[in-house]
Amino acid sequence: MNAPERHEMFTLPDGARKIELLKDSKMANCVQFNIQREDHTIANLLRVKLLAHPHVLFAAYRQPHPLEYYVELKVQTSSRTTPADVMREAIEALMLEYGNIRSAFDNELLRMDASDGRAQRAYGAFGADASEFGVGDM
């Protein structure tokens, strides 16, 4: 088969950087971020978060080819800040936001288990327990 190995979609090669910055010579305050081993999921989340920033003038992404496991995210800002700074802020905001969702989920599981008296809960079609999802020992 000519298909690449599945692990190549997720595993960063030795010596490779997760994010590479390429300055755009045609536009002021514009940078292209090449994010390795990611797809539309993270790229769209970042794009939406970046566009909510008041100093971001442009934010868009593309995945060059389905068999190339990286996305290109282009960001242009006003002269008040840099694309690297707003990208850092967007990543930190997403980490905080999804950390809060995770905490709320974990707390709700604990609340439900305490009211049921059940020690374990099944998730998904295959009956995997919560520990497989990193929820903890339930």
Can you describe this structure?
The protein is an alpha+beta fold. The chain is about 35% helix and about 20% strand. It contains 2 helices and 6 strands; from the N terminus they run ββαββαββ. The strands form 2 sheets. Strands 1-2-4-3 form a 4-stranded antiparallel beta sheet, with helices on one face. The protein has a two-stranded antiparallel sheet with strand order 5-6. The longest helix has about 35 residues, at about 85-115. The chain starts with 18 loop residues before the first strand and ends in a 9-residue tail after the last strand.
Which secondary structure elements does this structure contain, and how are they paired or packed?
Blueprint: E1 19-23, E2 30-36, H1 40-51, E3 56-62, E4 70-77, H2 83-116, E5 122-123, E6 128-129
Antiparallel strand pairs: 1-2, 2-4, 3-4, 5-6
